[in-house]
Structure formats: structure tokens, C-alpha cells
Amino acid sequence: MILVTGGAGFIGANFVLDWLATQDEPVLNLDALTYAGNLENLAALAGDDRHHFVHGDICDRTLVDRLLAEHRPRAIVHFAAESHVDRSIHGPGAFVRTNVEGTFTLLEAARAWWGSLGVEEAAAFRFLHVSTDEVYGSLGPNDPAFAETKAYEPNSPYSASKAASDHLVRAWHHTYGLPVLTTNCSNNYGPYQFPEKLIPLTIANALAGRPLPIYGDGRNVRDWLYVGDHCSAVREVLARGGVGETYNVGGWNEQPNIDIVNIICGLLDELRPDPAGPYARLITFVKDRPGHDRRYAIDARKIERELGWRPAETFASGIRRTVQWYLENQGWVENVQSGAYRAWLERNYASR
Ligand code: NAD
Ligand code: DAU
């Protein structure tokens, strides 16, 4: 069995679904079901006794200790986090709590558990920490892509909290010998992404005839990766990654935000034409995000060289699948657009 944290969120749910579709090893899924966690993401696993869901907080040491002792997982795959940069600007406290204190709590529980194992079990145990490229800071137009050796320069409360968690993971390996692995991935997109992030927000707003907000000049660059490719990279690193190593994961797919939004508008024009006219008419430039990182790009050569991983999906195929998924799952989108979601839109966009 493996313990997955945050397995009801966007990437965690895709990981759990993919894991159980490709192998029989059970998953213990610990998730606090914040606004971003949604059991509907896991509906396909109803009645599947390989999936054990626990509603709980990674900051709850007693709970984590009990789960480790009862279920004896051979690995922890740690996705749980507060993940949205704009929310971290409005309220950084939750990011420090979950991303820093939560990771600290898991590391301490894992250390105690691992220390109690016999030689063989201890040697096989892994703590895989899922992190982000944002810890490396912002690139200029001609800078080389982020390699694993790049110094950390986090710029937002979100990326600072993730950088802090990465440092804790590193230290627990160097000081205590805990067998850790870290992945630093670029921007994901795909099914079940909460419509606060650029791609699902653009799709949801376009279909509702609402403005498509572009921060600043729209020329900020992100390196987009289909979520299924991130999940396969995490599986590879868990299976064969070097203990104490970090692996950058990316899509070799740098694109300015305005291009991403135009591509989505073009796909919607094709798949769900709007009688009122092309969706791009809704594009609206708004006030920039404070401290907005200009460019991210991942140098993913290490994971390819050492583990043979490369993304399987092209952006053209992945974004088409994603737009089609949102069109076919309008009920899912409606269910996550609660009063709290509308309050968030008001808070983030009304004053822009
Ligand atoms: P998400 O916000 O969609 O999901 C986070 C999940 O964690 C939710 O299910 C939530 O309920 C759960 N959670 C939050 N606080 C918790 C707590 N205290 N205890 C237990 N569960 C808690 O996030 P995501 O986009 O799926 O990201 C998952 C991980 O991947 C994060 O660590 C993030 O930093 C990292 N990451 C994300 C991206 C991306 O583009 N989304 C890219 C690289 C890395
Ligand atoms: O790089 C990996 C990171 O990618 C992950 O660690 C984060 O968890 C994930 O949220 C994502 O962070 P970004 O800030 O890059 O993602 P977001 O979708 O919020 O924004 C993508 C780009 O689009 C960014 O340059 C800001 C811009 N944007 C975003 C929103 C929500 C807009 O122009 N308009 C918007 O309304």
C-alpha cells in the first residue's frame, strides 16, 4: 500500500485514478477536503476496495501516526498543499500552515515510522515530495531553463511555502537519512482542475459568456504539462529515483498566457460555437498579479537521462482532450462553483 496525501485534489486525484488503473497496489488517500478537494473526482472508484479514503488533515500528527501504524504503507506520495498563487497573496497563513507545518508533520511522522521498521522494509521505504518549478523564481527571456542545480528564489507566498517544504525534505534526508525523493514540476492542466487556474477558468468563463481575464500584458510564459504526464513522472521517480535526488518535470512547452487563451478560444469555436461570435471577443486585460513571475521553463533532461521519462502528450492533443473533458463534464464544473467559489471570483477580480 502507498499513502497519498491530497488525493482528492486535481493532480492527486488524477494520480490515484491512474495508479489504480495500472496496478493493484492499494492506495490510502488522506485529504482534508478543502475547497480544492472533491470526492466527486474519485467517483469512478466507488466500491473499489483498493482505495481507502480518510478525511483528515496532514497537520494532525496523531492521525498520521495512527494511519502509518495501521496500514503500514511502503511509501508516502505527498501532494497535499494550498496551491493557488493568487489565494496565497490574499491569505498566506493557510499556505504556511499546510505547506510548511503540514510537510513538517508528515516528515516527523514518517521519520518515527521509518525508524521503527526492520532493515528490509526501511531500505524500501520512500517519502516522495511533490513540488513546483516556482521555487526557482522567474526567468528572463534568454535565461536557460531551470535545472535541478538552479538556486531557489521564490517570489510569492505560495512558492516561498513550497520552497520551505522542499528544504525541510532535503534536511530530513541529510540529517536523519529519511529516504526522500523530490519532484519539481511545471504548470499542469487536464481533467478535474479547479476553475481558479488559468486554463479551466478560461473554459468555464468562456462557456458562461464571462470576460476572460488576462493579467498584465499576457506575455508571461509558463511551461505546460498534461497532468497524466506528471503522474507518470511521479510513478517513475517513486519506482526508480535515486534516494535524496530531485527531479525537474516539464512539458518542453513554453507558451505566453495570451496564446494559451487564444488556443482555448479556437477549440471552443470549433467544438461549441457561440452564436454571439468568437470566444476571443471576451478576452479582457486586467491589472497584473503582484510580483507576477515573468517566465518559467523546465530543463527536464535529468529525468529523461536517468529514468527514461518524457511527456507522452503534446500540447495540441492534451489541450483538446482537456477542453473536451470540460465540455462533457459541465455538471462537475457547476458543482464546484459554490457560493465560496463566487466569493473568490469577486475577491480576486472585482478590483482588477
Ligand atoms: P489542489 O489545490 O487541486 O489540491 C490540493 C489537495 O490537497 C486538495 O484535495 C485539498 O483538499 C488537499 N489539502 C489541502 N490542505 C490539506 C491539509 N492540510 N491536509 C490534507 N489535505 C489537504 O492542488 P494540485 O494542483 O492538485 O497540486 C498538488 C500538488 O502538486 C501541490 O503540492 C502543488 O504544489 C504541486 N504542483 C502543482 C502544479 C499545478 O500546476 N497544479 C504544478 C507543480 C506542482
Ligand atoms: O508552475 C507550477 C505552478 O503552476 C504550480 O506550482 C501552482 O500550484 C499552479 O497554480 C500554477 O501556478 P501559476 O500561477 O503559474 O498558475 P495559474 O493558472 O494561476 O496562472 C497561470 C498564468 O496565467 C500566470 O502567469 C497568471 C496568469 N493568469 C492566471 C489567472 C488565474 C491570468 O492571466 N489570468 C487569470 O485569471
Global morphology: globular
User: N- to C-terminal separation?
Assistant: 47 Å
Amount of helix: 40-55%
Describe the largest sheet: 7 strands, parallel
| Structure summary, number of beta strands | 13
Hetero compounds: nicotinamide-adenine-dinucleotide, 2'deoxy-thymidine-5'-diphospho-alpha-D-glucose
Any low-confidence stretches, pLDDT <50, length ≥5?
Answer: none
Provide a count of the helices.
13
Rg: 20 Å
Proportion of residues in β-strands? 15-25%
Structural class: alpha/beta
Query: What's the SSE pattern?
Result: EHEEHEHHHEHEEHEEEHEEHEHHHH
The chain-level mean pLDDT equals 97
- List the strand order in the largest sheet: 3-2-1-4-5-6-11
In short:
With 352 residues, the protein is an alpha/beta fold. It has helices spanning 10-22, 61-71, 85-90, 93-115, 119-124, 157-176, 198-208, 227-240, 257-271, 301-307, 315-328, 330-336, 339-349, and strands at residues 2-5, 27-31, 51-55, 75-78, 126-132, 180-185, 188-189, 212-215, 221-223, 225-226, 246-249, 254-256, 283-286. It contains 13 helices and 13 strands.
How would you sum up this structure, described in words?
The chain is built from 13 helices and 13 strands. It is of the alpha/beta class and 352 residues long. The strands form four sheets. The chain has a seven-stranded parallel sheet with strand order 3-2-1-4-5-6-11, sandwiched between helices. Strand 5 (126-132), helix 6 (157-176) and strand 6 (180-185) form a beta-alpha-beta unit. The longest helix is centred in the first third of the chain and has 23 residues, at 93-115. The structure holds nicotinamide-adenine-dinucleotide and 2'deoxy-thymidine-5'-diphospho-alpha-D-glucose. Nicotinamide-adenine-dinucleotide binds next to helix 1, helix 4 and strand 5. Residues 5-6, 8-12, 31-34, 36-37, 57-59, 79-83, 98, 102, 130, 132, 162, 185, 187-188, 194 line the site of nicotinamide-adenine-dinucleotide.
